[in-house]
Write a structure and sequence with these properties.
- The chain is mainly β.
- The chain is 0% helix and 54% strand.
- The chain contains no helices and 22 strands.
- The strands form 7 sheets. The chain has a 5-stranded antiparallel β-sheet with strand order 1-12-4-8-7, with no helix packed on it.
- Strand 19 and strand 20 form a beta hairpin.
- It is globular, with a radius of gyration of 16 Å.
C-alpha cells in the first residue's frame, strides 16, 4: 500500500476586504513540497490574477470556475524546487472591486498532482473525483448565495467526514457577500470515485 501525503500547514489572507494586493502570512517549505492555492471572489465580475511568491517553483492554474451568476473560484499549484523559510504568496484582484481572499496549503511526501475537476450548480456542494489509492484530496466551495454554513456537514471519504481547512461566512451589502469552505482528506483509502463537498447546508449556488 502506498504512503499517503502529509499536510504540513495552511495559511490564509482575510476574505472580507477589497485590499489589493493581499499577501499570506509567512511559511516554510522543503524542496519537493506541493502548494495548493485557492482564490475566492463573491461574484463573476471580480477576478483574480495569477499569484506570485517569494520561493522557487512555477505557479500553475489547475481549475477555475468563471461563470456569470456564480462566485469566481480558482485553484493553482506550486511545485517547490528549493528549501526555504519565511516564504509568502501574493495576489491582486481585477474587474469589479469587491471583497476577496485566498489560502495556501502545503503538502509533503506526495506523488504529484493527480486528478482535478470543477463544477457549478445549486444545492448541497458535491464533486466526484476519481482517485488513486491513498491519495490526499482537497476541495474548495464558494457559495454565491451566501447561505449561513454554521450547521455545515462535510461529506464522508474513506469512512470519515472530510476535515475542515477553513470556513468563512461573509455578509456585507456594501462590498459583497459569500460563504466559502475548504476541506481535505489525507488518505482516500482504496482507488475509485470519491464524492467531495458538503451535505449541508442546501440551497447554495456554488462553485466547487
Amino acid at each position: 500500500m502506498a504512503t499517503a501525503p502529509t499536510r504540513v500547514t495552511s495559511v490564509q489572507t482575510v476574505y472580507n476586504t477589497t485590499t489589493s494586493p493581499k499577501t499570506t502570512p509567512t511559511f516554510d517549505v522543503q524542496a519537493g513540497d506541493l502548494i495548493v492555492i485557492y482564490g475566492y471572489t463573491p461574484i463573476y465580475e471580480t477576478t483574480l490574477n495569477t499569484p506570485t511568491w517569494t520561493g522557487t517553483g512555477s505557479v500553475t492554474l489547475r481549475q477555475s470556475v468563471f461563470v456569470s451568476g456564480y462566485a469566481n473560484l480558482y485553484c493553482w499549484t506550486i511545485d517547490v524546487t528549493s528549501t526555504a523559510t519565511g516564504r509568502t504568496i501574493s495576489a491582486t484582484s481585477g474587474g469589479t472591486t469587491l471583497i476577496w481572499g485566498m489560502s495556501a496549503t502545503i503538502w509533503r511526501n506526495h506523488g504529484g498532482v493527480g486528478a482535478s475537476a470543477n463544477a457549478n450548480t445549486t444545492g448541497a456542494p458535491s464533486l466526484s473525483l476519481t482517485c488513486t489509492a491513498n491519495s490526499a484530496v482537497q476541495v474548495a466551495v464558494d457559495d454565491w448565495n451566501g447561505v449561513n454554513g454554521s450547521s455545515r456537514t462535510w461529506r464522508t471519504v474513506n469512512g470519515s467526514a472530510m476535515s475542515e481547512n477553513m470556513y468563512t461566512y461573509v455578509t456585507d451589502a456594501g462590498s459583497g457577500y459569500y460563504t466559502i469552505y475548504e476541506g481535505y482528506t489525507t488518505d482516500v483509502g482504496s482507488a475509485g470515485s470519491k464524492t467531495l463537498g458538503l451535505t449541508a447546508p442546501t440551497g447554495q449556488q456554488y462553485s466547487i
